[in-house]
């Protein structure tokens, strides 16, 4: 029979205990992949404990996201969901974040655009190791080679003895019904052909403590998809907005030990800095260099009324200082000219 190198689990398997994982180790299991999320609507509540217990048992830990997206924008939103869930579940940066792509096949071109957008966004969110899982019949419908030897492929032959399917990929999931002593039900098991999923099994990463705005930044943009609510308790959802949506903030309202942003129409959104960011650079923000996102004018005055010239997208500017202009800010250059202090127009360069 093929090896039992890696097991993937979800809420369908229940919460995995240390004893469960140790039982599997006796059969050669070295790594696990836990379901983290699905679409933008589901978080697997068993992932955190199952991952923590796998680490205690000495396994390498990874996570996967079940894709529901059909557009690039949807892929980015789901990537943000996956990365947040990975962090909250305790996965470190050495973990592989897998895209489980088996719901909708839109053909090579659209699949490629969507998958590449998902991978890029997960990496931007701080997880450099990604892979794509799919079924054997879909391997020619999408890019799988993300890191030199990519792809984790499912194919369940009736008799896998002596077989070594998909040896040029990262791994082959050869059954979904493997049973282990002391563990409930059948499990998805894979034979791996590289060490990509075998990152160091260390202590779980603690979720970062949420930081909330205590002052009114006036204008913010969404780092992640966010909801608007009728009430400060966030029990009555009004609607949903994608990342990069800009909001004008009427005021900051206390809610227990945290705060909420209230909009002019009375609705509420989060003030968590992980989800929203001020739109304009602050005067004392320490910004030294910015890059034009889509091209920008330079101006003689901070009111931005007297145009000097046009600078194309990608132009980088050295910042002399950030100056206030009403509720916004401007970037003053060394030559005395001004450009917008809007982060979506001129982004920060590290």
Automatic annotation (TrEMBL):
It holds the Pfam family DUF5776. Residues 212-276, 280-344 form the DUF5776 domain. GO terms for biological process: carbohydrate catabolic process; cell wall macromolecule catabolic process; peptidoglycan catabolic process. One of its GO terms (molecular function) is lysozyme activity. Gene3D superfamilies: Glycosidases (3.20.20.80). It comes from the Bacteria. PROSITE patterns: GLYCOSYL_HYDROL_F25_2. InterPro entries: DUF5776, GH, Glyco_hydro_25. Belongs to the glycosyl hydrolase 25 family. PANTHER family: LYSOZYME. This is GH25 family lysozyme.
